[in-house]
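Batch job 17 of 40 flagged for manual review because the log was empty.
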Amino acid sequence: MKVLHTSDWHLGGLLHERKRYDEHEQFLKWLIHLLGNENIDVLIVAGDIFDTVTPSNRAQELYYQFLHNASSIAGLQVVITAGNHDSPSLLNAPKGLLRTLHIHVIGTVTDDLEDEILLLRDSQGHISLIICAVPYLRDRDIRQTEPGESIEEKARKMREGICEHYRKVWRLAEKKRLELGVNIPIIAMGHLFADGCVTTGDDGVRSLHIGNLACIEAEMIGQGFDYLALGHLHRPEVIRGNTHQRYSGSPLPMGFGEAGQKKQVVLIEFQNNCPLSVSEISVAISRELKIIQGDIKSIKEDLSNLCLANRPFMVELIVESELVTPLIQAQFREQVEHTQVDIVKIRRRYSIDDEKMSDPEETLTDLDEMDVFLRCLEEHKISEGERKDLFDAYSEILASVHEEDMQAH
């Protein structure tokens, strides 16, 4: 069987207030083309289908149009799990209907862990693959809150709860494999933060749980599985050199921290019930992100070259100048007018050697909730001793707000 691993589509997501529906539509069309041409048997999407728990009608239209197109590909089965950006109830709502189209959706954990164990059949009708479709595990799914717990104690309980969940689904999957009497492969899915991985600035990756303390050892949850398909991090990453435990990464660069980054999906091929190969397939990016840095003269030259390329670009300018006046900013934008180059953001660097940044156009849309909170601590000159308690409390509140399912009622 041939399995394709992807994640973190973030349909409906913005980049500094720029809508990206066209880019997402182009990716989904490319993906449909790939699924058919490569004769993929199973597509797995490891969370963050949407960018928000209340996706726009346009974002939902893209999602359901993709599923409609996917259902027309002979023999293709699709497995989708929720991420921390998704509404579990919104994803789960049509799951009964989608199942008739061989599309399996797991939005949240249930009282019965067997709901996360999927037995998939090959083109001959034989059960040839077991998938442990584990969705994003929310705090309330995996730990009991007790008064007086420290933030470290809560994080420890979360790590233990996540690992125990994977141990349980592994035991169930292994039991089913033994009952079948055939040594078929088992794939686990997950949406979490693996220890040892890193994020880049301005990549849109939202902290999980409390202050991102619940980093999970992939070895602890991946034991026994033939492949561990992870979502959440937007950069493709192999976990500690183990090619069978990895993040596929997002198909679109989510921020300028990912400018120039290769985007991919992962192809896993099984033959005679054994993992045969794992390979990457580069995603065709319809609009490239660029960071241009230098003095005013060099930036204008670089912008001219981009314009001549006659391809779509979104650009962040970092100008090395003591003063970037609105007149100069207008000149940059006038230079790219009527071209496919879109200047999304302009920042100023005081000098080449000075790392201090100033952003004359910074707005709240450039900051996340934690950025604003940390700046408030700075503004009010909160002492280091007080900061830790305030940070821990705010992180826990933020995690609970992000996990509220706005579509549940």
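Reviewer: the log was empty due to a logging misconfiguration, but the result itself is present. The two ends are 39 Å apart (CA to CA). Unflagging and moving on to job 18.
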